[in-house]
Design brief:
The chain contains 4 helices and no strands. The longest helix has 21 residues.
Length: 95
Amino acid sequence: MLPIPLQLVDGFLLKVNFGDALIVGFVLGLFAVATQRSRKLLTLHLITFGALFLLSPASMYAPQELSLLNSILQYKMVGLVLLVVSPVLYTTAQK
């Protein structure tokens, strides 16, 4: 296994904020969860990231050079939507 150069990771994290790193982790996690084909596992993933978006301090979402969303409120709203939608999906899931 090849080690990841720390300069590459550091260069990425200096240009984005915590919310953008969470979005990248969320999307990569969705691909991993999709391979399991479990709707309950998917909703637990959504609940976890919704709580992370909503409960993280607002100062961590300050817009940076390559930010995907423009304001702190947008990151908090993403978390709120995930937390509202995911319990409904969990209760309707068969497996």
